[in-house]
From TrEMBL:
Localization of this protein: Cell membrane
Transmembrane portions of the chain: 68-88, 100-120, 127-145, 151-171, 178-198, 218-239, 260-278, 284-302, 333-354, 366-382, 389-407, 413-433
Protein name in UniProt: Xylose transport system permease protein XylH
Region of interest: Disordered: 1-29
Taxonomic source organism: Kitasatospora paracochleata
Keywords noted in UniProt: Cell inner membrane, Cell membrane, Membrane, Sugar transport, Transmembrane, Transmembrane helix, Transport
InterPro entries the record matches: ABC_transp_permease
Length: 443
């Protein structure tokens, strides 16, 4: 019921509370809170407190929310090796695995550069032609014109960087889509390669040049492979301890010592098993060592530097990155320069592998294999998620498929179809993972 007030408004009378709901002490007594709100706890702290059980729970939670990481590609690699190993025992022999680790370097180097571009959510379709162009520059300068091999090598790498600068400029400054720019580059740089090679068409490398030695050198002493494994494990342990100490000093959750020790032990098992296998054949391939150094250095740049964080920011939300003051054109241009430079590095290793630079360099299925290696390894096509280790894992998957099928004598047609199916599966998994992350509110 309501009564009119002197100013013409209405005065509302509330019905009295029943006795059983009235606070003790009368209507003026304070109403007690039903239950105090429980503060949210950082899930990382729960994981740290629960130890192994907590880590298993966290692992299940990450999988259920679509954060698959490298789990699918590792499982795929295990299945591939198990299948081909059961079909032919020579597949898992020290000689074949050593050859495999050496043969994936060229494609893997190119895939590292592709990872950088994919982190922006873009694509580079010119990496195959760029790799052939830079191999031709090196071969023609060093062999045909007798230029110092170091200078020829530097010219090839600078050539790759210039290509990336040109393509990045048209993409970042002019606004031409990366797909169109690099598709045009795929044709244009291939034509320039043919022009540089001239009517001869093929330039054979002597086998004693610097690039050939980088590819073909093996360190036969067992201490070399074991020493590299020990150094890698020690570096990982030192970096993990330093990171944990830095996070504790900043007052944020850090990995406990038991976790660091467990990860280090697992890495040591893999590293020393690989070293043992390599020592059963020729020893440690220099090409593989260089590949791993590139992966570690560029991964550090992505994860531990302001520049790397800007790349992830652009891939995650370009408008947010722009408003945060990041120079979008600069990052885009430099990323395309890194991609083309890595294509040049990969092209040089591929030329050393076949001991020549020819009209077919950079052609065939090289472009698709490089992109597939990055995607299969776990780098997202949608940007903002990936790692340089994706290049290694993806290249291992593709190289293992090709090696196993060659041992079984299967045709290239079958290899192409199976590689394509694996690539499609990787993209489907990536798409489903993103959908799951969005449903879980983590994307």
């Amino acid at each position: 019921m309501t009564d009119q007030t002197p100013n013409g408004g209405e005065e509302r009378h509330h019905r009295p509370l029943p006795e059983d709901t009235m606070p003790k002490g009368g209507v003026n007594a304070p109403v007690p809170v039903a239950a105090e709100a429980t503060p949210a706890v950082d899930p990382r702290l729960i994981v740290r407190q629960e130890g192994v059980k907590g880590y298993l729970g966290e692992f299940k939670r990450r999988l259920s929310s679509g954060e698959l990481g490298s789990v699918p590609v590792v499982l795929a690699l295990i299945v591939i090796w198990a299948v081909f190993g059961s079909l032919n025992s020579s597949f898992l022999s020290a000689q074949n695995l050593s050859n495999l680790s050496q043969q994936i370097v060229g494609t893997g180097m190119i895939a590292i550069g592709v990872v950088f571009v994919l982190l922006l959510g873009e694509i580079d379709l010119s990496v195959g032609s760029v790799s052939g162009l830079c191999a031709a520059i090196y071969a023609v300068l060093s062999v045909t014109h007798g230029v110092n091999q170091g200078v020829a090598l530097l010219c090839a790498l600078v050539g790759g960087a210039v290509v990336g600068l040109i393509q990045g400029f048209f993409f970042a400054k002019v606004g031409v889509p990366a797909f169109v720019v690099t598709l045009a580059g795929n044709l244009g740089w291939n034509g320039l390669m043919l022009q540089i090679l001239g009517s001869q068409g093929t330039v054979n490398l002597p086998g004693t040049d610097v690039v050939s030695k980088l590819y073909s050198t093996f360190y036969g002493q067992q201490i070399a492979a074991y020493g590299a494994a020990f150094f890698g494990v020690a570096l990982f342990l030192a970096a993990s301890l330093f990171d944990a100490q830095r996070r504790r000093a900043a007052g944020i959750p850090s990995r406990p010592l038991a976790d660091i020790v467990l990860r280090t032990v697992l890495l040591a098992i893999v590293a020393f098993l690989a070293a043992y296998t390599l020592n059963q054949y020729k020893g440690l391939p220099l090409a593989l060592l260089i590949f791993l150094i590139f992966i570690v250095v560029l991964e550090y740049m992505l994860r531990r530097t302001a520049y790397g964080r800007k790349i992830f920011a652009l891939g995650g939300n370009i408008e947010g990155a722009r408003r945060a003051g990041i120079s979008v054109p600069t990052i885009r241009i430099t990323v395309f320069m890194i991609c083309s430079t890595m294509a040049a590095v990969g092209g040089l290793f591929l030329a050393a592998q076949i001991q020549s630079a020819s009209q077919t360099s950079g052609g065939g299925n090289l472009l698709m294999n490089a992109i597939a290696a990055a995607v299969i390894g776990g780098t997202s096509l949608f940007g903002g998620r990936g790692s340089t280790w994706s290049a290694l894992l993806g290249a291992l998957v593709i190289g293992s498929i090709q090696s196993g099928m060659n041992i079984e004598g299967l045709s290239n047609a079958i290899q192409f179809m199976i590689t394509g199916a694996v690539l499609l599966a990787a993209v489907v998994i990536d798409s489903l993972a993103r959908r799951t992350q969005k449903a879980a509110g983590r994307a």
